[in-house]
Prior knowledge:
endopeptidase fold (from Nostoc punctiforme); two-stranded antiparallel sheet; 2 helices; disordered C terminus
Amino acid sequence: MGLPFAERGRTRAEGLDCWGLARLILAERFGVDLPSYSREYRDTTDKAAVAAAVQRHLPAWTPVAEGHEREGDVVLMESAFGHLHMGVVVRPGVMIHIERGAEVTLCNFLINKIYGQRPRSIYRPPSQGVCGS
């Protein structure tokens, strides 16, 4: 915790956006190497470009029914501001995430007032190796 937000950030030193945090956690904790996408969108409010980048690689991921999520799954949702947002499940119903104006934090994505009423999907990344390119 204590890591700062940075647009298209991919390292602890420069800061992270929500995908950068997911990428860092999945690499360090689960050995899953995710694509950076940092050159595929201008910032996190570029919903169409972010969605296109993610959608290109989702077929390699396994959809997970709500209530069956486990540590390391990725929660994909639309924020109250209309842009795509994601976090990594740390325990059922709870994700770690980061967003503009805030450091890394935990929240209950099932009842959170910001995200609770937004469409969401949960995905399990490939168990090891590279996902996408």
